[in-house]
Amino acid sequence: MKAGTFQVADGVRQAGIAGESLGTIVAGTSQVASMIQCISAAAEEAGAGASQSASAAVTLSTKAEELRGLVKRFRVNA
Question: Domain residues for 22?
Fold first, then answer.
């Protein structure tokens, strides 16, 4: 009888330890999820920045072509 009581008590102790471990795992999982959200937001911002850079490059190229056309009108007589 005492052996059975001891085994039950040990099982309860181990279940408590397992519960604490699961609590730690859940907290860690929440932290990882939060980090993933931050990374996702940063990636979206970086993507938006890259899109803006590409758009600015196209605009700059267009303006350079326009300037090249204007410069062709001038002739320098030496």
Answer: 1-70
Asked whether residue 28 is domain-assigned, the answer is yes
pLDDT at 35: 95
What is the rounded distance in angstroms from the CA atom of residue 59 to the CA atom of residue 65? 10
- In DSSP notation, the chain reads -HHHHHHHHHHHHHHHHHHHHHHHHHHHHHHHHHHHHHHHHHHHHHHHHHHHHHHHHHHHHHHHHHHHHHHHH-----
Count the alpha carbons within 13 Å of 28 in the hemisphere toward its beta carbon: 6
Per-residue model confidence (pLDDT) at position 65 = 93
Which pTM value belongs to this model?
0.57
Write down the pLDDT at residue 78.
59
- How many angstroms separate the CA atoms of 22 and 30, rounded? 12
In a domain, 77, yes or no: no
How many domains in the chain?
Answer: 1
